[in-house]
Amino acid sequence: MTHRIMHIDLDAFFVSVEQALNPELRGKPVVVGGRPDRRGVVASASYEARAFGLHAGMPLSTACRLCPQATFIEGSFPKYRHASQKFMAILADFSPYLEPVSLDEAYLDATGFESIYGSTHQMAVAIKQRIKEESGLCASIGIASSKVVAKVASELSKPDGLLEVADGEERSFLAPLPIARLPGIGKKTERILNGLGINTIGELSSMPLDALKSHFGGSGELLHRYANGIDDREVRLPGAAKSISRETTFSKDTKDRSQLEATLRYLSERVGSELRQQGKQAKSITLKLRYADFTTITRHHTLRQGNNTDQTIFGTGLQLLRKALSPGKQPVRLIGIGVSNLIEPGRQLDMLDSSAQRLEQLNKAIDRIRKKYGFSAIQTGRTLLLKDIFPTNEGGYTLHTPSLSR
Ligand code: TTP
Ligand code: MG
């Protein structure tokens, strides 16, 4: 089963709210942003106004010159907030797997919902219909196997659009589009790529990864993935922690591998414990090292499927650590381990294999004992080593307050 993700975005949102409340404005060039004699820019332009070249971000004075017959409205935020809440409530009626992105935009995971509505296409039709009936607004919807392709599809379908990209068609769908259509490509990136003779997403997708990295650093890889329609970001519910991490600064910088590894083990267990407490699994693991001169590096690894066992977090962290440490490197000042790309176990597509399941049960049992008797009631071989290094529990190094980024 592949993912079916919807990207839903309301058309000319601020303007449409005004038009829904005032029928006289419908079908006309309308701008929300302020009076044309004031300084300021267009926040939202009706599609009728866009026909004159108006768009968001354009100075109001220019907008007025291009389309003097447009109605200019100051706008009122409480109205838009109210409309946004209604919009999100309608979406939540269709799927609990809803991630609001902005006032008028959300991702919805519709995987497995085909059977209820007949097809995801029909589900999208029903969503559009309800939004129209209950708020008078028009939504455009893109459906695809990933967030990035769904977003490109919804934007392309506007206004009043609905566009589904079939599984397996992602690359051929994206290929002919200009690169500016791809999320993450701003004006600057577009200019650089155009300078390199890259104009379409297809051309971008066949650019060697190394070349992209040399021009755009870390984001080069993301561009490469997106251009190829690859994006494994999940639809995340609001309020859900996006990552969990623990880090420690040593009282004295160290190059001692056993101390680094023992500390990593200890931190991994704390991260794993928190992850299981939240009922989550992680798909990405990140190691952080800060050297004596304060240069900081992070190393990531993505797991094939979600996991929340101490063994996997530590095992992966250890591999990353061993790769990151080379003999000539400086002593380490800080070490940290974190997990991200968190998922709800029941929602993942691959089934856990049975050995992973057994490990998970073991970890749960350990957590129960720790809860009863304290964290140090059970220590695995490597964390015991910490006691040899630091005779008092947690002494000798500072344990930072848990950093739970949202
Ligand atoms: P968008 O969804 O980007 O724009 P839109 O809904 O007006 O038009 P469409 O989606 O059909 O292309 O943004 C949603 C609202 O956010 C928009 O109505 C007004 C507000 N907004 C600003 O206030 N300033 C801006 O620069 C942008 C882009 C949007
Ligand atoms: Mg919009």
Write out the strand line-up for the largest beta sheet, numbering strands in chain order.
Answer: 5-6-1-7-8
Radius of gyration: 26 Å
End-to-end Cα distance? 30 Å
Number of extended strands? 13
Mean pLDDT: 87
Structural class: alpha+beta
Shape: globular
Helix fraction, binned, reads 40-55%
Give the low-confidence spans.
347-353, 387-406
Enumerate the distinct ligands: thymidine-5'-triphosphate, magnesium ion
Number of helices: 16
Order of helices and strands: EHEEHHEHEEHHEHEHHHHHEHEEHEHHE
Largest sheet: 5 strands, mixed
The fraction of residues assigned to DSSP E strands is 15-25%
Descriptive overview:
- This protein is of the alpha+beta class and 406 residues long.
- The protein is built from 16 helices and 13 strands.
- The relative contact order is 0.09.
- Strand 5 and strand 6 (105-109) form a beta hairpin.
- The chain has a 5-stranded mixed β-sheet with strand order 5-6-1-7-8.
- The longest helix is centred in the middle third of the chain and has 21 residues, at 257-277.
- The chain has helices spanning 13-21, 47-50, 60-66, 77-94, 114-117, 120-135, 147-157, 170-174, 187-195, 201-205, 209-216, 219-227, 257-277, 310-324, 354-373, 381-389, and strands at 5-10, 30-32, 44-45, 71-73, 98-102, 105-109, 139-144, 162-164, 243-254, 281-291, 296-307, 332-343, 397-399.
- Helices cover 42% and strands 20% of the residues.
- The model is unreliable at 347-353 and 387-406 (pLDDT under 50).
- Helix 4 (77-94) runs antiparallel to helix 6, helix 13 packs antiparallel against helix 14 (310-324) and helix 13 packs across helix 16.
